[in-house]
Amino acid sequence: MSNRQRTEGxxxxxxxxxxxxxxxxxxxxxxxxxxxxxxxxxDVSGTLFSVxxxxxxxxxxxxxxxxxxxxARAHGKTWVIIFWIAVALYVASAILGLF
Length: 99
Hints:
single chain, mainly alpha
């Protein structure tokens, strides 16, 4: 048996991959549900679909935030400030359903 330990970077990349995969699955299902089911008369405005949309939005945020933060950090303090403002706006709009 191998006693290899995972590094923090490997764990972070695995987490990002999982978030991206969850986002892809939920986006595909929600696009299908939002566009096709109302055509046959199925109501998709319930709490379940709202929660699934919120999970998708949070997973999307987690999937992109690490790469965006690395980019911002490499380009200086102004970019980091812009990054945090964008994250705050995204979280607020995801929670409040503004987009």
